[in-house]
Amino acid sequence: MSLPPLTLYLAAPRGFCAGVDRAIKIVEMALEKWGAPVYVRHEIVHNKFVVDGLRAKGAVFVEELDECPLDRPVVFSAHGVPKAVPAEAARREMIAVDATCPLVTKVHNEAARHHENGLQMIMIGHAGHPETVGTMGQLPPGEVLLVETVADVATLTVRDPGKLAFITQTTLSVDDTADIAAALKARFPAILAPAHDDICYATTNRQMAVKAMAGKIDALLVIGAPNSSNSKRLVEVGANAGCAYAQLIQRAVDIDWRALEGIRSVGITAGASAPEVLVNEVIDAFRARFATTVEMVETAVETVEFKVPRILREPA
Ligand code: 2E7
Ligand code: F3S
User: Fold this and answer.
1) Would the pTM count as exceeding 0.85?
2) Domain with CATH 3.40.1010.20 in the chain
3) Phi, psi angles (nearest 5°) of residue 149
4) In the predicted model, what is the mean pLDDT of the chain?
5) CATH class belonging to 18-101
6) Which residues line ligand 1 (CB under 6 A)?
7) What pLDDT score does 218 carry?
């Protein structure tokens, strides 16, 4: 029996960004340097496959510092931590390695600089997400106000409309953020803005590739975790760009084959925390069911790399 034909469009860039590469390397190098167990505060990146792999090598994942013994190293996840967390680790005299993405640290520094200049901050982000919690936690309570939607802008109560700046989470929808930033500028004309926003290159590039493939595909599958902000944004971008069927899947086993019946072209991308082995697993699952042709939709080439912290480059 011959298999039905199907074209798989593969987004490029997709998958791991430089911050994720670095964060995973930090945990691996910490395990090499100090042996197991190495504690990691929060999932190093939001991917079960990555977390399970590191757990098998001796990493122990916890949510709070007080779950870590004093005599073992602790790594802070790529999403960043409130200022109180490294301060508490230092007070406890723990070895702490910070895997916060340098592009998140840049936003932390931006917030601190505005605060020193007497500005109150407004953060565009998602409530409760660890990056938002970490960035807001760089400043004292009340100094960073959160907005999630254009509607939130109208209800903000600020200290002084003439002394404001805004920052953003790095993994937001580029288009939604532009709308919220415009609403902020309309309501507070004096607000200081980042050059564009604080959305990182990886988020921007992955969204751009999805937009480029949207017109060619009947369905979009985004490989990523349900708690991965950047992955969820890719599903939304696909839906907004006209994909009638856009789904987040963690692995090939999550594909709803019945929903794909009769479909002839599928777009595949992966969030910044999803490893390429899972993309290959999904491609193989298609090859088993369809006469599959794979085509690349490449909208950017990424060359960004980040160094690991010095403590891991020095001998033990
Ligand atoms: C850190 C940051 O782990 P992720 O899925 O995280 P998000 O923030 O998208 O939920 O992806 C990698 C990553 C992205 N941003 C890590 Cl601040
Ligand atoms: Fe950093 Fe962006 Fe990746 S903030 S961890 S480069 S998705």
Assistant:
1) yes
2) 5-16+201-298, 103-187
3) -140, 165
4) 98
5) alpha beta
6) 19-20, 45-46, 78-79, 101, 104, 131, 170-171, 228-231, 271-273
7) 96
* Burial label, 105 (beta-carbon count in 10 A; 0-12, 13-18, 19+): middle
Neighbour tally for 129: CB within 10 Å: 16
The confidence score (pLDDT) of residue 5 equals 98
Beta-bridge mates of residue 145:
122
**Which pair of tokens denotes residue 58?**
């001796």
Query: Which residue has tokens 């959160």?
Result: 146
Q: Which CATH architecture has domain 5-16+201-298?
A: 3-Layer(aba) Sandwich (3.40)
Parts of the chain belonging to CATH 3.40.50.11270: 18-101
Residue nearest to atom 2 of ligand 2 (CA): 200
Considering the domain 103-187 in this protein, what is its CATH number?
3.40.1010.20
Annotated binding residues for dimethylallyl diphosphate, written as ranges, equal: 46, 79, 129, 228-230, 273
Give residues with Cβ within 8 angstroms of 200, minimum separation 6.
Answer: 17, 19, 101, 103, 170, 171
| In the predicted structure, residue 314 carries a pLDDT above the cut 90 | no
**pLDDT tens digit sequence for 127-176:** 999 999 999 999 999 999 999 999 999 999 999 999 999 999 999 999 99
